[in-house]
Amino acid sequence: PHEKGCTYTALAEVAGILAEEGLAAQIFQLGSDAISGCTDCGACFTLGRCVIDDKVNEFLALAKETDGFVFGSPVYYASANGALTSFMDRVFFAGSDAFYLKPAAAVISARRAGTTATFDQLNKYFAISQMPIISSQYWNMVHGMEPEDVRKDLEGLQIMRTLGRNMAWFLRCKEAAAKAGVPLPKREEGIYTNFVR
């Protein structure tokens, strides 16, 4: 929710490396406005967007033209903040086709703890959407109470730079595969098995 806070500081480090690598990056800020949770109305299946018109639809319009993603969150009670969780639930439910086989990474910011639980939480969105998960030399996290603290987390900033380079490399590999005529994997229609009858 803080426009230039700790999470932004980590994402800016990744974006800087992407720029060095010749790739454009945009930081999409959720801000502090309320983000409603998913109501499971199912309207997105026919609309191709969420029926609640807020930052989710603004992001989905960008996501369709985006090649890769880095989602960042501060830690609130050992999990992602509530607004981001509501945002992710709705974005991935309403726009799953915008994410297929596009690389993704989670970046986590905390004063001290809860980072690995939040890292796992966000990576699950990518795994269920068939997105290659981009990693670094350690878990993608920074520590600090204020942006100045994050700038002192030298290991955390190095992790962000490595993440940016790994993302750039993967995007180049995907582009090279497309130029070489390597097709995307065959997709099957989803099969849903209910275990309670």
Describe the structure.
- By secondary structure, the protein is of the alpha/beta class.
- It has helices at 6-20, 44-47, 55-63, 82-94, 115-128, 147-152, 154-179; strands at residues 69-76, 79-80, 104-110, 141-143.
- Strands 2-1-3-4 form a 4-stranded mixed β-sheet, sandwiched between helices.
- The radius of gyration is 17 Å and the shape is globular.
Summary?
The protein has 197 residues and is of the alpha/beta class. The protein has helices spanning 6-20, 44-47, 55-63, 82-94, 115-128, 147-152, 154-179; strands at residues 69-76, 79-80, 104-110, 141-143.
Overall mean pLDDT stands at 95
Helix content: 40-55%
Order of helices and strands: HHHEEHEHEHH
SS-derived structural category: alpha/beta
**CA radius of gyration:** 17 Å
**Helical run tally:** 7
Task: Looking at this protein, list some descriptive labels.
single chain; 197 residues; alpha/beta; 4-stranded mixed sheet
Q: What is the topology?
A:
Layout: H1 6-20, H2 44-47, H3 55-63, E1 69-76, E2 79-80, H4 82-94, E3 104-110, H5 115-128, E4 141-143, H6 147-152, H7 154-179
Parallel strand pairs: 1-3, 3-4
Antiparallel strand pairs: 1-2
Helix pairs in contact: 1-7, 3-4
